[in-house]
Amino acid sequence: MIKITFLGTSGSVPTKSRSLPSVAVTYEGKTLLFDCGEGTQRQAMRYGINISSIKAIFITHMHLDHVIGIAGLVRTLALYRRTEPLYVFVPKGEEKGITALLNFDKALISYKIIIKPVKAGEVFEDKEFSVDAIKLNHTVPAYGYVFKERDKLRFMKERCRSLGIKGRMFSELLKRKSIRLKNGKTVRIGEVTYTEKGMRIAYVTDSRPSKDVEKAARGVELLIHEATFADAHRKLAIERKHSTAREAAEVAKSAGAKRLLLFHFSVRYKNTATLIKEAKKVFENVQAAKDGMEIVLQKGT
Amino acid sequence: MIKITFLGTSGSVPTKSRSLPSVAVTYEGKTLLFDCGEGTQRQAMRYGINISSIKAIFITHMHLDHVIGIAGLVRTLALYRRTEPLYVFVPKGEEKGITALLNFDKALISYKIIIKPVKAGEVFEDKEFSVDAIKLNHTVPAYGYVFKERDKLRFMKERCRSLGIKGRMFSELLKRKSIRLKNGKTVRIGEVTYTEKGMRIAYVTDSRPSKDVEKAARGVELLIHEATFADAHRKLAIERKHSTAREAAEVAKSAGAKRLLLFHFSVRYKNTATLIKEAKKVFENVQAAKDGMEIVLQKGT
Q: Angle at the Cα of B199 (from B194 to B200), degrees rounded to 5?
C-alpha cells in the first residue's frame, strides 16, 4: 500500500486553502517528501504525516516556493531529537545553496543531513523501493521524480495448495529456490511463483511538457503533474516554462498513465473547474489535487 | 484605533493550532509586522491582514523560527507587483544574513527592500507613530520593540463651543496658534486644547526578563511577552535565555503595563492553563494569545 498525501498544492503564492508545493509518499512506515514549500512541516502535522518518518526529501528545483520549508523542518526534527540521517536530493550544482539554507541559524542539528546532487537516472534505493530523477524543462535546473515500488515475488496460492506446499516450506523455497515434495518430486520456485510488478508514481513540477517525462512515466499508476495555467494563458506557460492543464493531460495520455492528479495552480484561477475541463478533453481520469487529499494505491484495486 | 493580530504564537516548533511567531500591528491602514516565522504570509491571508499594507518588518533576532517567513513574503509581494519600498529591521550585524535570505532564489523583487540595522533607541518614525528598539537578553543579539502612537492635540469641545469657536476657526487656530474671537478677545491654542497621550504596545521575545524592557514598557497599554516555560522548567528558561510565564508577569507588573498577552509557548505544554495560572499570581490582566486573536486598542476604551 502506497499512501500519497498532498501537503501543498498552490504554485508560487499560497492561498487560504492551498499551501506551497509538497507531496508525501508513505510506504511501509517510511515517508518520502517531494518538494518542501513554506509551511510544509505544519501541513504534515495537520494532515497526519509523522515528520519523524521522513527518510528523504526530493527537491525539484531551487525556487524558494519549493524548498524554503526544509529549513524549519530539519530544525524541528532536531528538536524532536532525531538521530537517523536525512537524505536531501537537489539538482546537481545546488549543493551550496541548500547547505546555506540548512545551516541558516546554525541550529544544532543532532543528526546527519546527507545532501545528494541529482542527475537523471536512479538516485535513491531502499529495500522496498527506488526513486528515479527525470530532467525537466524549466527556467532553472529542475528534476521530476518517479517513486518505484520494487517488483514482488508472489506465490500462486492455488497451485501451492494443490502441491501441498505449506508452512515453513515457503521460506525454504525462497531460500533454496527449489524444494522436494512428499511425493519425491522437486518443485522449482519459478513453477509456483509469479512477479507482481511494483507500482509507480511520477511527480513532475515545474516544467514545460516533456518527452523525458512521458518516457519515465510510462504506465505509472499515478502522474502528479503541475498545471499552472489554463489554455487562455498558454503563452505565459511557454514564457515561464510551466504547463497548462491540457498539456499535463497530453503528457499523461502519451505516457499511458493510469491516473492524473493536477496541482501547482496559479492563484489567478478562483477554482480549478476550467483547468479540469480542459484536461478532460484529452485525458479522462484526471482530478485537481487539494491540500490534505490522500490517495491510497493498492495492487489490484 | 490600533489593531493587533496574532499571526503565530508558538515557540520554536509549530503545532496544528499555533504557527511560528509573528504579530501584525495595523494603524491608519498601515501594517507593521513583528517577527516573521515560517507560514506568516499564509497566516496573514487567513486572518484578514492585507500583506500589501505592510510597511516594515521588525525582526527580534535571527533564529530561523522568527525570520524564515520573510523569504516567501517578499517574493509574494513582488508577484503582487509592489512598488513601495519595504523596511526590514534586524539586529545590527545581521544585515548579511538577512540579505542572503532575501536574495535566496534571486527572485526578481520589483521594489526596494531597505535593511535597517537595529540598536537600542528609536529605529523608525512615521507621521502617526514611531518604533523604539529595546535590547533583550537572549543567546544571540535580540531586540524587542515598542510601537508608539504619537501624542495628539485635541480640542476641548465644550470650551470651544462656549467661546464660539467653530468651522474653519479650528484649522486657523492650528495654523496661527491663536485666533481673535468676535468679541475682540484673543484665544491661544493652549487654552482650548489638551494633549492626548499616544498608546503604546511592547513586543518582547526571545529574552530573559529584562530591566530594559521594564523601563521601555513603562505604562504600555499592551505588553506582548514570551512565556516559553512554566515554573517547573525555570532552569531551562535560564539556560536557554527564555522567560517563564510568571517572569513575564513580573515584568508586566514592574512596568505598570495595563494588559499582558503571553505567547511563544513551548510545545511541551498541551494547553496554557498552568502558564496563565502562574502568571495570574503576579499580574491579573493576563491572557494567552492564540493564532488569529485580534485586539483593538482605542483611546478611552
A: 145
Contact (CB<8Å) A68/B64:
no
Record the cell numbers describing residue A239, joined without a space: 514564457
What are the residue boundaries of the structural domains of chain B, listed by start? 2-151+197-297, 153-193
Residues of B forming the active site: 65
* A104 → chain B, closest CA residue: B64
Question: Hey, which residues does B23 pair with through a beta bridge?
Answer: B6, B34
Q: Describe the strand order of the beta sheet including B260-263 as a list of residue ranges.
A: B121-125, B129-135, B143-149, B200-204, B222-226, B260-263, B286-288
CA distance B273 to B262: 12
Nearest CA in chain A to B46: A16
**Residue position matching grid coordinates 498541551:** B270
CATH classification (class only), A2-151+197-297: alpha beta
State the CB neighbour count (10 A cutoff) for residue B113: 18
Buried b (16+ CB within 10 A) or exposed e, B24-44: bbbbeeebbbbbbbbbbbbbb
Cα four-point dihedral sign B282, B288, B289, B295 = negative
Q: Tens digit of pLDDT for each residue in B9-58?
A: 999 999 999 999 999 999 999 999 999 999 999 999 999 999 999 999 99
- How crowded is residue A203: how many other Cβ atoms within 10 Å of its Cβ? 29
Contacts of A68 in chain B (CB under 8 A): 38, 68, 71-72, 104
CA distance B103 to A234: 29
The cell for B257 is 503595563
For chain A, list residues whose CB is within 8 angstroms of any CB belonging to chain B: 12-16, 19-20, 38-39, 41-42, 45-46, 62-65, 67-69, 71-72, 75-76, 79, 97, 100-101, 104-105, 107
Which of B12, B39, B104 has its CB closest to that of A79?
B12
CA distance B234 to B228: 10
- Interface confidence (ipTM) of the complex: 0.90
Contacts with B67 from chain A: Cβ below 8 Å: 105
CB neighbours of A276 closer than 8 A, spacing ≥ 6?
Answer: A245, A262, A286, A287, A288
Q: Sorting pLDDT into bands at 50, 70 and 90, what band is B301?
A: very low
Looking at the DSSP bridge assignments, the partners of residue A98 are: none
Per CB-CB distance under 8 Å, the chain B contacts of A107 are: 63-64
pLDDT tens digits for range B136-189: 999 999 999 999 999 999 999 999 999 999 999 999 999 999 999 888 899 999
DSSP code per residue over B153-191 = EEE-HHHHHHHT--TTHHHHHHHHSEEE-TTS-EEEHHH
Nearest CA in chain B to A103: B64
The alpha carbon of B287 is separated from its chain's Cα centroid by a whole number of angstroms, namely 17
Locate cell 493580530: which residue? B5
CB contacts, 8 Å: B142 with chain A = none
